Amino acid sequence: FKVLQIPTTKSTPKSKIEEKLNEGINVILVIEVQGAKKVKELIKESVLIFILPPSIEELEERLKVRNLDSEEMIQNRLKIAEEEIKEAVKIVKESVSDLRMIMRRR
User: Fold this and answer.
1) Do residues 57 and 78 lie in contact, with contact meaning Cβ atoms separated by under 8 Å?
2) Where are the beta strands (DSSP E) in the chain?
3) What is the DSSP letter of 31?
4) pTM above 0.90, yes or no
């Protein structure tokens, strides 16, 4: 069992992912929600895993403890996180729905 984590910049070419999959290597992409949606569209059998903070409050505390960003930057990051969590929940619901449909066909 091999896993390749591809560092992502703006986008990872689909051909690079498919090349590794064809070699029997599982690929892990560390990407944002929008990128995950695009991957799911292009590679239907992909498995999406979202790692979420326990809460927005906990995320805010973690960001403040790190002491790397201004208060304005932290508030901006929290706003983005809230939107991404909403999107991730939608994607997960769609994935579960798709899985149920697949299981019914069997």
Assistant:
1) no
2) 2-6, 25-29
3) -
4) no
